[in-house]
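Notebook B, p. 112. Complex prediction, attempt 2.
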Amino acid sequence: MSRRTYDQYCAVARALDVVGERWTLLLVRELLTGPKRFKDLLDGLSGIGTSLLTARLKDLEGNGILRRTTLPPPAGSKVYELTDLGRSLEPVVIALSRWGLKLLEAPRPEEETRAAWAMVALQSSLKLEAVRGRKETYEFRVDGESFHVQVEGDEAEVRQGSAVDPDLIISGDTETLLSVAAGRLTLAEAIEAGAIATEGDRGSLARCLAVLGSPGRDGGKSVREDIRAQQAR
Amino acid sequence: MSRRTYDQYCAVARALDVVGERWTLLLVRELLTGPKRFKDLLDGLSGIGTSLLTARLKDLEGNGILRRTTLPPPAGSKVYELTDLGRSLEPVVIALSRWGLKLLEAPRPEEETRAAWAMVALQSSLKLEAVRGRKETYEFRVDGESFHVQVEGDEAEVRQGSAVDPDLIISGDTETLLSVAAGRLTLAEAIEAGAIATEGDRGSLARCLAVLGSPGRDGGKSVREDIRAQQAR
DNA sequence: CGGAATCCTCTTCGATACTG
DNA sequence: CAGTATCGAAGAGGATTCCG
């Protein structure tokens, strides 16, 4: 309740007054893919402890970043979800993810792994220019969990759960997807290596490869090359 | 030295392991506009204390975010400057700034004010589409301090110090510029009100107004309206 | 000036135990 | 499952001192 602030008339400082404390942005990361129960949050933030999680949730609710709601029947469970203001933190989390990807190599033994985290990383590495306004829906199945990614114009939505009518289904494991997001592996290479399987028409696959293209090559060329690599299989 | 980490195999968590501690991102903010001496940093981060600043600097140097160097003669002072990795945190700070601007109203009495902070906010609110590849240099004189802003393509560089041959000089105070950055005031309105003065040709002014246009109006229209407002003066 | 080191107080964190 | 209560450990903050 003491609310320590930087007391600086500065937009960055003000932002950090609200979301700069330990765990806070990771909590937002958890909620970006959809509403979560207290237990889910606890699981995705192992080490936080129930007291601190409660405190952070109260704080963020007070600042209008998230709200408590009850899921419609038959679920009926109490969950936390981002408000519009909270969702507008997405660019902050995405920017952190892009930067963090530079530092992320193989997982250390003591580190936990979650499929949802790979999805955030994936979102942060999308090359949205490659789809130029086209609307496309992909379903990702990562280590048993499903997510859907909707790409349209210069926006991408990534949420937990299956897609209704996906143009493409991509299956793989967390570590492979993180490698793709980090640019250490192209999606085409991962497919060739059998680490990722896809299901859908060739056109969607080509566009998905482009959107997830490796950063090293330029957009247009990358698309064609990746398609060749895929067809050569 | 204990290096508390989240131990999550996640790009966001990894980023926050490095720059998520208290003061760290504000320290990066300070260095974004150019190298600074220990004393300058202390001044821009009042409340941090020499011990903690020293610790953070060591930490960031160890992580390759910044380095200690000696300024070329005649200055010769020891300064801290961002490495390439450190500078690549700019999008993170900018994203925080954009978000923080939503929360930033009038300064509270206990809050400090710095011209450089307004410049960061200004950078975060630039509409770079409005200059479409054109290279332009603006000099800002804010409460006695000078900064130069170079806009080219989709990139903008904001640094302390005067520009060599600016296309436009904009003079004003910190709070007015923050209001412009926050979109509560258009640059044109501020000029009309006498809170901001400009010096330079009309074309550059028009483009500068566009780049700093209020978010509420669309780009092209805003330019013409702002020019009319200016000419009507 | 540019730090490093120490001491002391206070706040925050983290872990566990306990309750509705 | 969703928290509250509690307590030791770690970190922050402020002042002051010392060194190069």
